[in-house]
Amino acid sequence: MEVSSKWKFEGKEEAKKASACTIRSYLNTLNESINKNDTTRSVIPLSHGDPSGFPSFRTSKVSENALLDALQSAQYNGYPRNADIFHATRSIAEYLSRDYPYKLSPNDVLVTAGAKQAIDVLITALAVPGANILLPRPGYPAYEALATFNRLEMRHYDLLPEQDWEVDIDGLEALADDRTVAMVVINPGNPCGNVYKREHLKKIAEAASKLGMLVISDEAYGHLVFGSNPFVPMGVYGEIAPILTIGSISKRWLVPGWRCGWIVMCDPNDILQKHGVAESIKNYHNIGVVPPTLTLGAITRILVETPEDFYSNTINLLRKAAAICYAGLREIPCFTPYKSQGSMFLMAKLNMSFLEGIDNDMEFCTRLAREESVVVVPGEALGLKNWVRVTFAVEISALEDGLSRIKAFCFRNSKQQ
User: Fold this and answer.
1) Does the UniProt entry include the keyword Cell inner membrane (predicted)?
2) Taking a C-beta distance cutoff of 8 angstroms, is the pair 241, 208 a contact?
3) Which of 59, 100, 119, 128 is the most buried (most CB within 10 A)?
4) Alpha carbon of 325 to those of 1, 37, 131, 168: distances in Å?
């Protein structure tokens, strides 16, 4: 048999680059660093926003029963029917409209397999040749990964830590040009735990309108707020600039494994429709996967019947955990933590001058994982070197144990010990 001397295929370089900048890639490296011989202590994951494995963060009985009833009905074992998708989009539109000054319709909503697929759909649909997009720094690296894969130019605007991580609007405007198609806003913030005031959101919308770009508002942590600022959806300013809102049931209802999210076109003036963007988004959405049919069968009850005390209990847990995390990190000289007002994270600045033999945040996180079996995310992964992101959405006892181990690690590696 003759064998070809020159194969015609090769790997895609963009896939390698995109994968390298994901949270998952960093966590894989950190988890591989954990000492497998340390069998006396459990690994404490202060690294990602999925507290569903901890007893205190179990989803509501309403959600569980809704999914169980959908399963036992035997009506949701196949591919989603048009009626299933319509009922889901109608329920999502009605649920979100409570917070909007105008009423959303089911036609404004696309259901996705979680917020991650929603990001994929929007970034891919907007990645026309020569276009660029403005991303926050620090930010959620899924945007960088998908922009890299789609060869969409990225420009990073700064969030200002001393101003509650507000957008540097002057810096944002200086980055934009006539090929800037969109900016991404994450509120409540991942990784910063910030919650934007209504007035600041309006300024962002006005800047977008001035620059002729749309806003992607990532609200995966919507309503998970416990500071002085209430959660305000960016879509309330859809009259000023077109807003594409991303959301999901993963965080507020504590079920990321159920894979159900949405894209909402908050655009009362139909600008997205007039410029063909709405059609592009819907066309690419049609190519991809859909949420599990079981989840679609349960979504209406999840949104409508979840009791208020479930939400308030979750908020109270997060408020308590955030305070413990902030106070614990403040006791460690090499950290300058910034208070969280929402989501499940806070950012802490590392003062490397306090540490002996540790030169950067990635080395800090790698050695912390190896020596103490505690995993936190290096700021390098989020666009801000020599910072770390800490997740406090874990059992309080695990959080306190994790903070104790971090403190021991830092003092053991301190130049002033």
Assistant:
1) no
2) yes
3) 119
4) 65, 28, 40, 27
Say which amino acid occupies 286: N
Distance CA(39)–CA(371), nearest Å, equals: 12
Distances (CA, A) of 11 to 21, 58, 149: 18, 41, 13
Element (H, E) at 92: helix 82-97
Alpha carbons 65 and 307: distance in angstroms, whole number: 13
For residue 415, the model assigns a pLDDT of 80
Neighbours of 201 (CB within 10 A): 23
End-to-end alpha-carbon separation of the chain, Å?
A: 70
159 and 166 Cβ atoms separated by less than 8 Å: yes
Share above pLDDT 90 across residues of the chain, in percent, rounded to a whole number:
95
Tokens of 363: 């080395």
CB 372 within 8 A of CB 406: yes
CB 217 within 8 A of CB 243: yes
346, β-bridge pairs: 390
Q: The tokens 């609200």 sit on which residue? A: 219
Helices (H), 288-392: 293-305, 308-330, 361-372
Residue 134 main-chain phi, psi, to 5 deg: -100, 125
- Residue 7 is predicted with a pLDDT of 86
Q: Which residues pair with 88 in a beta bridge?
A: none
Give the H or E element holding residue 85: helix 82-97
Give the burial class of 52: count Cβ atoms within 10 A of its Cβ; 0-12 exposed, 13-18 middle, 19 or more buried. middle
- CA-to-CA distance for 18 and 30, rounded, in angstroms? 18
CB atoms closer than 10 angstroms to residue 141: 23
